[in-house]
C-alpha cells in the first residue's frame, strides 16, 4: 500500500529523516514512536506530501507519489491530522467535516455563485459524507454545534472527522491523544480501534506508551531521523536499542529496568494477549 524507500530530508545542515525504508501494512494500526526530536512528524509530513524529500521515494498502491502536491496525495487516499488541532472553530462541526469532502468534488466558484445543479448535487454528497464521518467518531449528535465550543477531546474528533470525510484508505494521526485526560484517551483509543476494524489503515504518532502498547499491531521506532527498530509491541518493548534511545547511555540501570518493566507490562495487558 504505502511504501517508502531510503527516505530522507535535510533542512540546511540538519538531516531530519535519513534512509528510512519500509511499508505500511493495509488494514492494521501502525504506530510511529521515538523520543522528542526523532523526526516523527517530519516523517508524516513526507508521507502526506507536505514536505518533499531530498532523497528516496514514496509509493502508494504502486504509484510514485514522491513529488505530488498535498491535495493530490489526499485525493489518492492518504489523509492526516496534526499535533495542534486544525479546525475552523467558528464553523459548525458539520461544516468542518464538509470541507474535508470538498477534495472529492469538481464544482468551482461559478458553480457556487450560480447555484448550478452540480453544486447542489455535490453539496448533498459532501454533507452525507461529512455526517458519516461524524458518526464514525461519535459526533453526529453535535453536527450543528460550533466546533469551537467543544471540549479539546471533541475538537480532536472533529479534526479526525474532517480527515475521514476526504475518503481515505490510510489515515495518519499525529499525537491524537495529546492534551487529553486518561479517561478521554481510553475513549479515543476505542474510536481508533473501531476505525481500523472497519477496514481503515491507521498510522499514528503518540507519546502515551500505554495507549500505543494496547492499540498498535505494529510499531516502527525512529531515533535521530533513522529507523532503529520495528515489530510487534512485545518485540519492540524488549529491544535494547529502543530502551537506549529513550533513556540514553547514561541512565541509571534501575531506571532502565523500570521503563522496560512498564513496556512489558503494557504489552502483557493487551486484550486477549494478542501481542504478548
UniProtKB/TrEMBL annotation:
Keywords: ATP-binding, Nucleotide-binding, Transport
InterPro entries: AAA+_ATPase, ABC_AA/LPS_Transport, ABC_transporter-like_ATP-bd, BCA_ABC_TP_C, P-loop_NTPase
Domain ABC transporter residues, every copy: 2-249
Gene3D superfamilies given in the database record: P-loop containing nucleotide triphosphate hydrolases
One GO BP annotation of this record: L-isoleucine import across plasma membrane
PROSITE patterns recorded: ABC_TRANSPORTER_2 (PS50893)
CDD domains for the chain: ABC_Mj1267_LivG_branched
One Pfam family, short name: BCA_ABC_TP_C
Protein name: ABC transporter ATP-binding protein
Gene Ontology CC: one annotated term: plasma membrane
GO molecular function: ATP binding; ATP hydrolysis activity; L-isoleucine transmembrane transporter activity; L-phenylalanine transmembrane transporter activity; L-valine transmembrane transporter activity
Keyword GTP-binding found: no
Amino acid at each position: 500500500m504505502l511504501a517508502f524507500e531510503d527516505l530522507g530530508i535535510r533542512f540546511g545542515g540538519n538531516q531530519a529523516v535519513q534512509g528510512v525504508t519500509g511499508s505500511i501494512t493495509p488494514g492494521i494500526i501502525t504506530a510511529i514512536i521515538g523520543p522528542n526530536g526523532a523526526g516523527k512528524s517530519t516523517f508524516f509530513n513526507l508521507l502526506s506530501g507536505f514536505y518533499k524529500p531530498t532523497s528516496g521515494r514514496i509509493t502508494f498502491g504502486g504509484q510514485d507519489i514522491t513529488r505530488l502536491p498535498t491535495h493530490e496525495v489526499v485525493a489518492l487516499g492518504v489523509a492526516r491530522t496534526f499535533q495542534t488541532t486544525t479546525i475552523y472553530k467558528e464553523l459548525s462541526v458539520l461544516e468542518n467535516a464538509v470541507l474535508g469532502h470538498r477534495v472529492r468534488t469538481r464544482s468551482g466558484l461559478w458553480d457556487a455563485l450560480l447555484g448550478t445543479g452540480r453544486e447542489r448535487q455535490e453539496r448533498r454528497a459532501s454533507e452525507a459524507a461529512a455526517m458519516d464521518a461524524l458518526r464514525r467518531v461519535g459526533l453526529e449528535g453535535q453536527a450543528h454545534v460550533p466546533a469551537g465550543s467543544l471540549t479539546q477531546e471533541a475538537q480532536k474528533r472533529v479534526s479526525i472527522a474532517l480527515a475521514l470525510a476526504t475518503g481515505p484508505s490510510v489515515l495518519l494521526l499525529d499525537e491524537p491523544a495529546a492534551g487529553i485526560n486518561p479517561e478521554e484517551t481510553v475513549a479515543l483509543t476505542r474510536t481508533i480501534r473501531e476505525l481500523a476494524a472497519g477496514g481503515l489503515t491507521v498510522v499514528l504518532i503518540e507519546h502515551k506508551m500505554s495507549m500505543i502498547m494496547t492499540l498498535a499491531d505494529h510499531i516502527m521506532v525512529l531515533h535521530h531521523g533513522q529507523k532503529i527498530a520495528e515489530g510487534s509491541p512485545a518485540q519492540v518493548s524488549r529491544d535494547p536499542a529502543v530502551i537506549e534511545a529513550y533513556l540514553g547511555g547514561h541512565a541509571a540501570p534501575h531506571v532502565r529496568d523500570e521503563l522496560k518493566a512498564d513496556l512489558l507490562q503494557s504489552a502483557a495487558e493487551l486484550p486477549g494477549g494478542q501481542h504478548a
